Amino acid sequence: MIEFRPSGLTADEEDLRVRVREFVAEEFPSGTYLPELGINAAADVEFSRRLAARGWVGMVVPEEYGGPGRSATERFLVVEELLAAGAPVGAHWVADRQTAPVILRFGSERLKREFLPRIVSGDVFFCLGMSEPDSGSDLASVRTRATRTDGGWLLNGRKVWTSGAQYCHYVMTLCRTSPRGERKHAGLSQLIVDLRSDGLTVSPIRLLNGQHHFNEVVFEDVFVPDHLVLGEVGSGWHQVTSELAYERSGPDRFLTTFPVLRYFLDFRHAAGPEAELRLGALAARYWVLRNMSLSIARSLDDGEVPVVEATLVKDLGTSFEQDVLDVVRDLAGGDQDPDGDLFGRLLADATVTAPTFTLRGGTNEVLRSVAAKHLLREKRRAV
Question: Are 216 and 196 in contact (CB under 8 A)?
Fold first, then answer.
């Protein structure tokens, strides 16, 4: 069953949202700061550390490991305000969103004590080594391989579209640790790889506007110590799919283009019934997606793993982000100077990066297949 349970906010949660909004207003005075676009945001290490000092990085990490021990819902509220303001969250993003929770869930005690306090303090950043050349969205077809050696593993292979590898400290890498058999999902493991390792090369994959967001990461006999295996050897597929509830369900899947809409309203004037109808329809869709995403945060707090629900948020949300650009571009008409005001510059950046929205984190076509297979299984059980 796919379920999104309605959820309101408590008084404490509303108070947290107000405090984050006040912090954002102080950091980024309106009209003087060019907002970032969601998870394409720049890496501002000092900003990440200022957030960390307030307890807003690694929020779900328990006090035992240096964290504030807050809920997934509270993290949702912090992230929502940061993304709406276009804050530069790139540096700590992956470590905060999913690396900390998966280390907390699957990591050894040594890994928890080695990495979680440093994630919480904003001193260690992670990226994801998942996608590979020629694999498309078939994550289980990875060819990057780790072979046993004295005291650890030798890693060989190549990853692409690795966001943030140029400034992160570690890459959480999905690889084969045993030969592929009939079941391609078996024999996969996750290794925590130091990006400063000998034999590791990071090369930029630039966007059309020259921005350096993605990278190719090549491993040539990179040594990874045994203790940097996450969870059990051979359990990588189960672990990596459990991460998807974090990766696909948050506000980052529908708020990427929100700053474009906000600055359109600030810098342009779209009057008339048609404009009001189209903008009102966008607002209604924002609210639906927000409530779906908030419902998943509540489910995570209840110990559930709502992977299928997360696929729907990602599918609907990233398609919506592109629809926002279509509506705004149409309403703006020819008044779209990329070298003009904040709106024009934002729209230009968003237009270049928009094709990636429905690709990263799993293409929408694959996500629909995941949801369809789940519904088919549910139907068979009911018969």
Answer: no
User: Minimal CA–CA distance to 253: which of 118, 139, 362?
Assistant: 362
* Residue whose tokens read 């590791």: 200
Q: pLDDT of 238-278, one tens digit each?
A: 999 888 778 888 999 999 999 999 888 887 666 788 888 99
Strands (E), 180-331: 188-194, 200-206, 212-225, 229-230
Query: Cα separations (Å) of 36 from 28, 166, 256, 316, 350?
Result: 11, 18, 8, 21, 10
Q: Are 87 and 41 in contact (CB under 8 A)?
A: yes
CA angle 27/248/161 to nearest 5° reads 80
Whether the CA torsion 243, 127, 361, 294 is positive or negative: it is: positive
Quick check: 68 and 54 in contact, CB under 8 A?
A: no
**Cβ neighbours of residue 263 closer than 8 Å, sequence gap 6 or more:** 35, 341, 342, 343, 346
pLDDT in tens, 48-104: 999 999 999 999 999 999 999 999 999 999 999 999 999 999 999 999 999 999 999
Distance of alpha carbon 28 from alpha carbon 60, whole angstroms = 26
